[in-house]
Amino acid sequence: MTWAGMVCLWPAVDQEGKVHESYVTRTRNKDAALRFMKRALKRHGTPEAITTDGLRSYRAAMNELGNAGKQEIGRWANSRVENRHLPFRQRERAMMQFQQMKSLQKFASVHANVHNLFNLERHLVDRQTFKERRSAALAEWQSFAS
Known about the structure:
Protein name: DDE domain-containing protein
Number of strands: 4
CATH topology: Nucleotidyltransferase, domain 5
Strand content: 5-15%
Number of domains: 1
Domain DDE: 9-118
Radius of gyration: 17 Å
Mean pLDDT: 77
InterPro entries: DDE_dom, IS_Transposase, RNaseH-like_sf
Shape: globular
Pfam family, one: DDE_Tnp_IS240
Low-confidence stretches: none
Structural class: mainly alpha
Helix content: 40-55%
């Protein structure tokens, strides 16, 4: 089945920018938000706070899960997740879109893992530590590739 259309990417990103979960759906409604949140909470536990955009389906899903008090919505609060989309969208454009939703889900999962491996928080460490971590990440990548 070829598929060309809009889909929603639901990422679960922590405060350091690490992607824990990526989920692709055709709809952006309460049911999709509920499935994503149940899946993320089951795998990664309950966080202290959940930052989302102003979409009402998040609020409805959080009410059903009993986490409505943990939801944070702010004008720039969701920036980490939105900025996390940028390298993903650049890679998607280079690949000339996706033809199937299954291939998009697979790509989103793999892209998150590779990005997490090489996202070393350069602004938080000195140059020597960064070089050591980068070398370790490259060695780990080469062991995966071989």
